[in-house]
Write a structure and sequence with these properties.
alpha+beta, disordered N terminus, 8 strands, 7 helices, 45% helix, 21% strand, eight-stranded antiparallel sheet
Length: 269
Amino acid sequence: MAVSSAPLWLLVLLAIAQWESSVGASSHSMKYFSTSISDPSQGEQPHFVTLGYVDDQVFVHYDSHSQKMQPRVSWMEKVGKDNPQYWDRETQRERGVEEGFRVDLETLRHRYNQSEGLHTWQQMLGCELRGDGRKGGFWQYGYEGRTFITFDKETLTWVAPVPQAQITQRKWDALSPQNQYFKSYLEEICIEWLEKYLSYGNETLQRTEPTNSKSNLGLIIGCVVAALVLACAIAGILVFFKKRQDDYKAAPTSDKGSSSSDQGSNQKV
């Protein structure tokens, strides 16, 4: 499988594995993953979920059922006590992202000339603070599990690997001040919040050099391989049922004080 066509979440796992092997256990990161699903048959499952990670620990969670950003680790309760507006602010932002993603899914479905059914729209963003003081950051979106568009913070432009993303690329590249803010968020604001969270959760998050990064790398690679096998099986099943569905239904012909994660809720594809 070529890297450019690999599922977005698989690329994330591979990137994490690369980070672990290259920068060691003294590196720390903060990442947010948001997924919106359009599927009339999904039943009781939430159609939108956001997970926030500090290092490998889920520390916050939001979904379309609760419609609240909530802590997932005990040390995050200290944040709300020190900053009473924190949870309300994070919740309101996520509600905006949820609504924006719902609109984006419909826009993309028509852009790809697809029928109604199971479709996914994902966002990944985050930053890392390496042991040698270097900083890194990323911001990208995926449609149907494939990379759709990626932010290049060095050139302040968006990279579109697929033709359907070129409309979005031109639209977002025209917003120069917003792109400048995204760079500032990844290189400054995100790092500041990461350092805050590390101070709150230092007992469980601060890792020492007795840590074996090679064993962590082996575990991650093992997870990647297992996930890839599972993804192939799921993809085969989805393709089968999609073909069955398309036999009966023809596709239509029509063509965000800063938060710890500013997820671009005002952007529209």
